[in-house]
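#onboarding

Welcome to the new folks! Below is a worked example of what a typical request in this channel looks like: someone posts a single protein sequence, and someone else replies with the predicted structure as tokens. Don't worry about understanding the tokens yet, we'll cover that in week two.

Example request:
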Amino acid sequence: MKQPSITEEGLKVLVDTFYGRVRQDPLIGPVFNGAIADWPEHLDKLQAFWSSVMLTSGRYKGRPLPAHIKHADVITPAMFGRWLAIWKETTADILQPAAAAAMQEKAARIAESLALGIEFSRDRSMGLGSATAMSPNGDGRA
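Example response:
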């Protein structure tokens, strides 16, 4: 039976199911499996994250962007698309349509933010984010 609304219990089922699927995915599974050493701890953290995002519980105290930037060398834009596709499928399987849509919308914004943050980090590490690199004459002046 689908969850009628977003609850702590529903988030646990959703997070566990979703990351079970992610871990089996040929594109993004290897990245996640290589990055996560303690899956039970990570799943608890992700449930707290989604609880904070969707239920405003304040349970999550982490910083997602730095955690993702650590793996910027292997994360591609296609991986964000695949992550979102699995998320959409999983939320649709577990939640009623309105709750699934709310989770999907929030996830799309989060994925966009993480992708932009990773790209900005890459640009900065290559010197593209500095005023000098961005100025037309290369001396930091417009």
